[in-house]
Amino acid sequence: MEHIELFFKSIFIDNMVFATFLGMCSYLAVSKKVSTAIGLGAAVIFVLAITVPLNWLLDQYVLQPGALKWLGAEYAGFDLSFLSFIMFIATIATMVQLVEIVVEKFSPALYNSLGIFLPLIAVNCAILGGSLFMQSREIPTLGLAFNYGVASGIGWFLAILAIAAIREKIRYSNVPPALRGLGITFIITGLMAIGFMSFGGMLTGGDDEGKKTTKTVEVKTVKEKTEKELANNTKVIK
Amino acid sequence: MGLLSKKDSKLITDPLADNNPITIQVLGICSALAITAQLKASIVMAISVMAVLAIGNVVISLMRNIIPQKIRIIVQLVVVAALVIIVDQILKAYSYQLSKTLSVFVGLIITNCIIMGRFEAFALGNSPWRSFLDGIGNAAGYGLILVIVGFFRELLGSGTLFGFKVLGDPIEKTGLYALGYENNGFMLLSPMALIVVGIIIWVQRSRNKELIED
After folding, report:
1. A113 to chain B, closest Cα gap in Å
2. Domain definitions of chain B by residue range
3. What are the percentages of helix, strand and coil residues in chain B, rounded to 5?
4. Which residue of A has its CA nearest to B81?
5. Whole-angstrom Cα distance, residue A225 to residue A194?
6. Is the dihedral of CA A124, A128, A130, A136 positive or negative?
7. What's the angle, vertex CA A195, arms to CA A189 and CA A201, rounded to 5?
């Protein structure tokens, strides 16, 4: 149940493009034709499915405060979380290179369709964003992290596929000259995002009472947490 | 402009309008949209990007002759990631609430295409001083759009600017609210950021016909 919930939540409610604007640059640049959009979308799913679980392991066993406990009790006090940006991006860059080499060796057909997009992906905000959101949402298990990676990728895939299809058709419409190209794409994406917001009630089923209680609890825990962290921070500064 | 030659000052003024990184070069859109619900967050984001881009441009430009062509992307990523970590730590130390609001988007400066784009297009082929100016100019152009979007979204969405209630108090019905004005809560939601940027592009391209795409 947990898995199904996270899966649909990541695809529709927290859609990468429409809710958090991740990967907008390539979303706008590579969405002129449906076929290239499918190629890039598939590559994003593929890379997210590999890097999110990998970064989850890295976060869990190296970076989190106290994560180095498995090395021995004297390492339990270390907090390497400030290194997470550089570690995540290094993992992503190396994984993309590795995937490129492996795919080229074992599946030339797949390489021909994905290959040109793989280098582009190392610097796609959707990939790093997936890992960073995985970290900040504190996803509890490896299986869920994999699930989150795949589902976010599918959400991104759907978004770029839809906008590419619309852009192919819109060429035949009479758009005001100043809006042609970039401007109209922005506005269509905005309208699509409004459409996707209607999925927001999908998991709560419009149950207002349930929503309210969970919300207050969430706010409380976040508050406690920030206070705790603040106290920690001031200690460090002192 | 005694300090800057005419060519150098063009590096700063060009990205502000006719070669704006967001509306013309289509770079760095991800972060531009997500954090513009408040004016303050937009300004902090703009300053962070300016620091990273200007310093990063200088560093890359100083190393441009010794970076091997094949691994330049990795080198660039390492430089940006190191700078972003510094910015993130400074934000956490001096303005903790704000760094919570910006959440992962500080980290996403690393993959902000504006940074890689300027490294590739400018810093790898120009002297440090010119790269520095280019970094400042492009980050200013980026910040300008952020501030415009943030201004409208905060003013129309919550009736405040920097948290000050400029339009009166919605609960006690003072100022504009006494006349029956209501906040447009829709402006605070993410889709409106896209539409506001779309409108900015529309206005800009109607004023300068050369920028219109076919």
Report:
1. 23
2. 19-151
3. 70, 0, 30
4. A86
5. 32
6. negative
7. 140
Distance CA(A87)–CA(A111), nearest Å, equals 27
The structure's pTM equals 0.79
Coil, strand or helix at A64: coil
Say what the ipTM of the complex is: 0.79
What is d(CA B38, CA B87) in angstroms, rounded to the nearest whole number? 20
From A124's Cα to the closest Cα of chain B, the distance in A is 6
Question: A46 in the Ramachandran plot: left (φ > 0), alpha (ψ -120 to 50) or beta?
Answer: alpha
Per-residue model confidence as pLDDT tens digits over B108-156: 888 777 888 888 888 888 888 888 888 888 888 888 888 888 888 888 8
Residues in chain B with CB shorter than 8 Å from the CB of A197 are 189, 191
The pair of structure tokens assigned to A11 is 């695809």
d(CA A134, CA A128): 10
Taking CB atoms and an 8 Å limit, are A124 and B111 in contact across chains? yes
* Contact partners, residue B68, CB within 8 Å, separation at least 6: none
Q: Determine phi and psi for B116, rounding to 5 degrees.
A: -60, -40
